[in-house]
Design brief:
Elements: H1 2-15, H2 17-30, H3 36-48, H4 52-60, H5 73-92, H6 106-116, E1 121-131, H7 132-144, E2 149-154, H8 161-175, E3 179-185, H9 194-202, E4 205-210, E5 230-233, E6 237-241, E7 259-268, H10 270-286, E8 308-315, H11 323-334, E9 338-342, E10 346-347, H12 350-361, E11 365-371, H13 377-393, E12 396-400, E13 404-405, E14 409-412, E15 416-420, E16 424-425, H14 426-431, E17 434-440, H15 442-455, E18 459-461, H16 464-468, H17 472-483
Parallel strand pairs: 2-3, 3-4, 7-13, 9-11, 10-16, 11-12
Antiparallel strand pairs: 1-7, 1-8, 2-5, 5-6, 6-7, 8-17, 9-14, 12-18, 14-15, 15-17
Helix pairs in contact: 2-3, 3-4, 5-6, 6-11, 11-12, 12-13, 13-17
C-alpha cells in the first residue's frame, strides 16, 4: 500500500516536472530579493537537477532579510543618546583635534556608528593570540578569576578533552555563585547529545541553543548559522576571534596538524560591545531578556597600556546591510600602501574582488594567505579560482603549509585592522551571524603585520607560472566550484 502511494507521488512529480520547476523558479526570481549571480546559480541547479534542486533551495537558500531576528528596542533608548553625542562630536571635530590613529578613518567610524550603532570605544588593551594552547590556557586563567558572571558563545563546542577542562572550571564557578551561560549553534554542535547539555544544566550552567534542529535531529537550515565566538567575564575581559572549542584547535587532530588561528583578548570599554552582542544573541535563543540587568552593563575599567580605539561590528541575515563586508570593502578602498589578508575561505563578491584588483593595479601591495589544505573541498577550489585572479593581476598570494590556517581578517597601511569571526566569503558576508573588531591603532596593526610576515616562513607563494601551469583536472574543479560559489 505504502509503495503504491510513493509510486503515485513519484509519477505525479515526473508528469508535472516542467510546471513544478517553473513554479519553483518563479519563487526564486520574484519572491526573494537576491544578487543576480545567486539567482542564476539556483536556476541552473533547478535546470540540471529538477525537484532535488528545489529541496536544496529549501535547506540552503531561503531568504531571511525580511525577518528581524533580534529586537534591540530594549537598549535603543539607553544607547541612542550616547550614539548621537558621539556622532555630533565626530562631525564637529577639526582634523587637528583627531587622534592620529583614527585620523583618515572618521568616515568609516561614522558609517559604523550611524548604520548599526557601533560606538567608537576607547582605552582598550588588546592581546593577539595565535596559538590554541596559549589562547585556552589564558582563557582558563581568566575564567578562574570570575566573580560575577561568565558568558560563553561558540559556533563549535566539542564534547572532548578541551571542553572537559573548561567545564571543570565552569562547574566550580557555578557552585561558587557565578552566573554561567553557554550559547552554542545547533549545526556547529550537532555531534553533541542533548544529554550532555542537560548535564551542564544540572551543574548550574545555563545553556541555550541557536536555531535548534527539527525534532532534535533534522537541521532544516544549513544557512543562517551563528558563527560568532565570544567570551565575556565580569565585564573585565572579553575574547573574540576564530578559535572554536575542540581538540583540533589545540593541535590534537592529526588531520589538520598545527591549527593557526587568531583570537583577540580585550580589556577596556570594548568589552561592553561584545557583552551587548552576546546578550542580544542569548535573548533570542533562550527567550530570556537580560538587557534590563544593570550589572551586565557595568562600565569596565579603562585599560591604557595600548590605548586602542575600536568598534565592535556584527552582521547577519537579519539585516539588509552587510556590515562586516562593507567594512572590508571600505578599508580596501582607503588603502594607500598595503593590504594584508588572512582567510581560510576566499570567495569574495564582485565588489570586494574588484576593489582588490583595482588596489593591485594601482600599485598597492596586496598580500593574501590561505590554507594549503581544504577542510571543505568545494569551497577550497572556488577559493583557489578567485586567488588566481589576484595572482595574475600581480598580488602576492600564499598557501600556509604548517597545518591549517583559520585566521580571519585584514590589515591596511599598518594603521588599522579588522579581525574576528568572519571569513572573506559570501557565506560570512550574507548568510552567517558574525562579529569583528575594527581596531584603529598603528602599534597593533604593525604587530599583526609582523605576525603575518612570520607566517610567511611557513608559506609557499603562488606564482603566475605556477597558477598558469595547473593541470586540467584542477582547472575543471575550479570552474565548477566557482560557478556554484554564490551557493557555497
Amino acid at each position: 500500500m505504502i509503495l503504491e502511494v510513493l509510486g503515485g507521488i513519484v509519477e505525479f512529480l515526473f508528469e508535472h516536472l516542467i510546471i513544478l520547476n517553473m513554479l519553483f523558479a518563479i519563487v526564486i526570481v520574484f519572491f526573494e530579493r537576491r544578487d543576480p549571480k545567486s539567482v542564476w546559480a539556483w536556476l541552473l541547479l533547478l535546470y540540471f537537477i529538477p525537484i532535488v534542486g528545489f529541496v536544496f533551495y529549501l535547506f540552503l537558500g531561503t531568504d531571511m532579510h525580511k525577518r528581524k531576528l533580534f529586537r534591540t528596542k530594549e537598549v535603543e533608548d539607553s544607547l541612542n543618546n550616547a550614539i548621537r553625542q558621539q556622532e555630533y562630536s565626530l562631525r564637529t571635530m577639526k582634523p587637528e583635534d583627531l587622534d592620529n590613529d583614527i585620523s583618515g578613518y572618521t568616515d568609516l567610524i561614522m558609517y559604523n556608528l550611524t548604520s548599526t550603532g557601533a560606538m567608537l570605544l576607547e582605552e582598550n588593551n588588546v592581546d593577539i593570540l595565535t596559538d590554541g594552547n596559549v589562547k585556552f590556557e589564558t582563557l582558563i586563567r581568566d575564567l578562574e578569576q570570575a566573580r560575577h558572571f561568565i558568558h560563553i558563545q561558540y559556533y563549535i563546542i566539542r564534547n572532548d578533552v578541551l571542553f572537559h577542562r573548561i567545564c571543570e572550571v565552569l562547574t566550580r564557578k557555578a557552585a561558587q555563585g557565578v552566573e554561567v551561560r553557554v550559547l552554542f549553534d545547533a549545526m556547529g554542535c550537532r555531534a553533541v547529545s542533548h544529554r550532555f547539555w542537560k548535564e551542564l544544566n544540572s551543574r548550574g550552567i545555563r545553556t541555550a541553543e541557536f536555531f535548534p534542529a527539527f525534532l532534535r535531529r533534522f537541521h532544516l537550515r544549513i544557512n543562517y548559522r551563528n558563527h560568532r565566538k565570544i567570551v565575556v567575564i565580569d565585564n573585565e575581559v572579553a575574547y573574540v576571534g576564530g578559535f572554536n572549542i575542540g581538540k583540533e584547535y589545540i593541535d590534537l587532530d592529526e588531520k589538520f596538524g598545527h591549527w593557526r588561528d587568531t583570537h583577540l583578548r580585550i580589556r577596556g570599554s570594548a568589552v561592553l560591545g561584545l557583552q551587548l552582542r552576546f546578550l542580544l544573541d542569548w535573548n533570542y535563543a533562550a527567550r530570556e531578556n537580560l538587557l534590563d540587568r544593570a550589572d551586565f552593563f557595568a562600565e569596565p575599567a579603562p585599560a591604557v597600556r595600548d590605548h586602542c580605539e575600536m568598534q565592535i561590528i556584527s552582521s547577519g541575515p537579519d539585516n539588509t546591510s552587510q556590515q562586516i563586508r562593507d567594512n572590508y570593502l571600505r578599508l580596501i578602498h582607503k588603502a594607500r600602501k598595503s593590504i594584508y589578508i588572512q582567510t581560510p575561505y576566499f570567495i569574495p563578491d564582485e565588489a570586494v574582488l574588484s576593489a582588490l584588483l583595482i588596489a593591485v593595479r594601482s600599485g598597492i601591495s596586496v598580500s593574501l594567505m590561505i590554507p594549503c589544505k581544504p577542510d571543505h573541498p568545494f569551497v577550497y577550489w572556488a577559493t583557489y579560482s578567485y586567488v588566481g585572479d589576484l595572482v595574475m593581476a600581480g598580488a602576492n598570494c600564499y598557501t600556509y603549509d604548517n597545518g591549517f590556517l583559520h585566521s580571519k581578517g585584514l590589515i591596511v597601511d599598518e594603521k588599522v585592522l579588522c579581525y574576528g569571526t568572519a571569513n572573506m566569503d559570501i557565506r560570512s558576508f550574507r548568510l552567517n551571524f558574525e562579529v569583528n573588531a575594527v581596531i584603529y591603532n598603528a602599534k597593533k596593526a604593525k604587530e599583526m603585520v609582523e605576525i603575518f610576515q612570520k607566517d610567511l616562513e611557513d608559506c609557499t607563494q603562488i606564482t603566475r607560472d605556477m597558477y598558469a601551469g595547473r593541470k586540467l583536472g584542477v582547472r575543471v574543479k575550479e570552474q565548477v566550484c566557482r560557478l556554484l560559489s554564490p551557493l557555497l
